[in-house]
Specification:
Helix content: 40-55%
Number of helices: 9
Number of strands: 8
Radius of gyration: 17 Å
Strand order of the largest sheet: 7-6-5-4-3-2-1-8
Bound molecules: pyridoxal-5'-phosphate
């Protein structure tokens, strides 16, 4: 019955159980991993179902889509928290600062400069995570591991609060070594937040210290094409 709506409350419950089980296996308190429910390409009604189930933290990967979907949801639930998890063009920095609370995809100097300027102009400063391209893939956003400290420092110089690192491992590789590398980098830089793990690999991420997992499919169902 592909047209049935997923039971989003049950899905959320199941994902939280997975987080608790993976964390429990390594002695972590389940409250130390947050779930960002990634709603990209899903209609606002599915986000409303998650809100009705008590969830408040969401992610989108495109500024335009978030602008269309979220202002009304935020009016309904002012305590909603929205994360940008996809590539951000510098020219959209102002829009992004207006709508997102956390920008997880800060990945280059030019964007840092644009975000700092936008924050000043809009009077609203998002929390930033630096995205690290742990697999050093040509097509993927993010700084290399070796460039991470430099971009974190640049954010701080320009007044952007950097709280963590984010990574998306290569699809065709074992994710755990990438999560371990991200955790090591965050430790070296004394950054408290580690955004890693998605529907297919959140257990490995939680075991290696994720403070934030980004889950789309296993919360909202398959994305429409
Ligand atoms: C879409 C997306 C996710 C969620 O992926 P699922 O496999 O559907 O859980 C997580 N992180 C980023 C950056 C994404 O773009």
């Amino acid at each position: 019955m592909i047209h049935d709506s997923p039971d989003i409350a049950a899905n959320l419950h199941h994902v939280f159980d997975r987080i608790a089980a993976a964390g429990g296996a390594v002695g972590r308190d389940p409250g130390t991993t947050r779930l960002v429910a990634v709603s990209k390409r899903h209609p606002a009604e599915r986000v409303r179902a998650a809100l009705a189930a008590g969830h408040r933290v969401f992610g989108e990967n495109r500024v335009q889509e978030a602008r269309e979907k979220y202002p009304e949801l935020r009016r309904e639930h002012p305590d909603l928290e929205l994360h940008l998890v996809g590539h951000l063009q510098s020219k959209k920095a102002e829009d992004a600062v207006e709508i997102f609370d956390v920008i997880q995809s800060v990945d280059r100097e030019k964007l840092v400069v644009a975000l700092a300027r936008a924050a000043e102009k809009v009077g609203r400063t998002p929390v930033c995570y630096v995205q690290v391209n742990t697999g050093e893939e040509a097509q993927k956003g993010g700084v290399t591991p070796g460039e991470t400290a430099g971009l974190v420092a640049r954010c701080r110089e320009l007044g952007l609060p950097v709280r963590g690192l984010m990574a998306i491992p290569p699809v065709d590789e074992e994710p755990a070594p990438h999560f371990a590398l991200l955790a090591e980098l965050a430790g070296e830089l004394a950054l408290p937040e580690l955004s890693m793990g998605m529907s297919g690999d959140l257990e490995a991420a939680v075991k290696l210290g994720a403070t934030c997992v980004r889950v789309g499919t296993d919360v909202f169902g398959e994305r429409p094409a």
